[in-house]
Amino acid sequence: VIEIAIDRIDPNPYQTRREFDEEGVDELATSMQAHGFYGHLVARQVDDRYQIAYGERRLRAAQRAGLPQLLLAVRDLTDEQMMELSVTENVLRKDLNPIEEAEAYQHLVNLGYSLRQISKRVGKSPGHISMLLTLLKQEDVTEAVRHEKIGIREAHQIAKVESEAKRRDLLDRTARGELDREAVKQAVQIAQEQMATPAPPAPPPSIEVTGLKIEDDTQQGIEPSSPPETEPNPDIGDVQPDITHRLANLYDPIPNLRVALKQLEKIRPDRFPDIETRIRSDVQALLDEIVSRGQYFLEQMKDDAES
Questions:
Q1: Which pLDDT tens digit goes with each residue over 165-202?
Q2: H-run or E-run covering 209
Q3: Contact 286, 115 (CB under 8 A)
Q4: Element (H, E) at 74
Q5: Which residue has the higher pLDDT, 147 or 250?
Q6: What values do phi and psi take at 199, rounded to 5?
């Protein structure tokens, strides 16, 4: 542990937190002015400067308090270790907003962590982690959650909509309180069905062969045959909150799903000699994805049953 001038100390370049409680930092700075800075920060040396691994809030407070130097425990840390320490410390503090938390998980995914490994490290379920990661797929959804316009579960559903226009409409209506969680799910399902339905074929063009023009019935003045009557397709604008949904659920799949997930979690590809070594990591990653999605749907069903 060495004493370093505070003007030579920088925050972690891989810091995932974007917002700090300024009032809390000011209070901590006032305390430091009265009592000093106790303890030390973990850091690495980069040229003639030092980057802290975590503790940026304390560094900011010390700077505001006007402290001339701080004690640092200097370690030989790689970029990956700096990122891992920053992410883990921030998530464990439990005061990140949902997008900051999602970005922290994304950093770990980029480092090669599976959802199961992240879950064990931060103490959050793979389903929770998977749900937050989906919030980063669409920028407009990300910003809506970042600014607390909509809840994360509604945002998770809306992020599935590929059409930017439909997504924007759902975000606006949800932010205004016009759609509850169930109505959002219905609207998203309709939007996905509309995207999956192919557009009707264009009418055949007129054909002219050596001066002889062949026209369709309408051009000839003949009334075309009427298409069969069909029910109008629903649109996302037609969806309204349904306060009576899910009143009758005769079969509860939650216990069965919970048992199945527990069994899947116990599977280890390295215990099966028939699985080639070179693909075991891929099998493990696939199992992790199945478990994480299953746990997310389990949480969704539990929420639906309670709402």
A1: 999 999 999 999 998 888 988 888 888 887 776 656 66
A2: strand 207-209
A3: no
A4: strand 69-74
A5: 147
A6: -70, 145
CATH class given for the domain over 2-77: alpha beta
Q: What helix, strand, coil percent values describe the chain, rounded to 5?
A: 55, 10, 40
Residue type (1 letter), 28? L
Q: Please, is 195 exposed, middle or buried when counting C-beta atoms within 10 Å of its C-beta (0-12, 13-18, 19+)?
A: exposed
CA angle 29, 32, 38 (to 5 degrees): 130
**Residues forming beta bridges with residue 70, ordered by sequence position:** 4
DSSP secondary structure of 253-297: -HHHHHHHHHHHHT--GGG-TTS-HHHHHHHHHHHHHHHHHHHHH
Categorise residue 142: left if φ over 0, alpha if ψ from -120 to 50, beta otherwise.
Answer: alpha
Q: Do the strands 212-214 and 49-52 form a parallel or antiparallel pair, or are they unpaired?
A: unpaired
The span from the CA of 246 to the CA of 160, in Å, is: 22
> Which residue, chain included where needed, has tokens 């949480």?
299
CA atoms of 306 and 298, how far apart (whole Å):
12
The residues, ordered by sequence, that sit 6+ positions from 83 with a Cβ below 8 Å of its Cβ are 14, 107, 108, 111
Residue 42 CA to residue 223 CA, distance in Å, equals 83
Give φ, ψ of 268 to 5 degrees.
-125, 115
Place of tokens 């980029």: 110
Instruction: Please compute Rg for the chain using Cα positions.
Output: 28
Predicted TM-score (pTM) of this structure: 0.58
> What SS3 class is residue 13?
coil
Q: Summarize pLDDT for 235-253 with one digit per residue, the tens.
A: 656 555 554 444 444 345 6
Residue given tokens 């799910």 in the structure block: 185
